[in-house]
């Protein structure tokens, strides 16, 4: 197999892994939240408040898409908008207590999915895969 065909096969398998992971999350989480909304909430929980621009950069989507996702999070009571202290025209998004409670429920289910998906690899293989993914994403 040449380099090009190996890369094509890796790309195909990576897409399959992504699809399998998304399907597992969808089947097991059932909390009325999309994958992108979940990702945004975890960022807000872990980082504190963020602007929509920062969120768009972090999850690799457009600013209008993040604004739409933010609207849904706010409407659901899982996040709130705050004025940005340094720029009154800008707003920040922050997770609410309801959003924290939602993530606590989801995290249990996500950990179960992760365990099922990754239990085929030993600890060294997981670390190696994490390093390789980090290299590809940077």
Description of the molecule:
This protein has 138 residues and is mainly alpha-helical. The chain has one domain: Arc Repressor Mutant, subunit A. The protein has helices spanning 3-29, 35-47, 52-59, 63-75, 97-118, 123-137; strands at residues 79-84, 87-95. It has a two-stranded antiparallel sheet. Strand 1 (79-84) and strand 2 form a beta hairpin. It starts with a helix and ends with a helix. The mean pLDDT is 90. This is MarR family winged helix-turn-helix transcriptional regulator.
Attribute tags:
138 residues, 6 helices, two-stranded antiparallel sheet, 71% helix, mainly alpha, Arc Repressor Mutant, subunit A
Mean pLDDT: 90
What's the order of the H and E elements? HHHHEEHH
Indicate the CATH topology: Arc Repressor Mutant, subunit A
Number of domains: 1
CATH superfamily: Winged helix-like DNA-binding domain superfamily/Winged helix DNA-binding domain
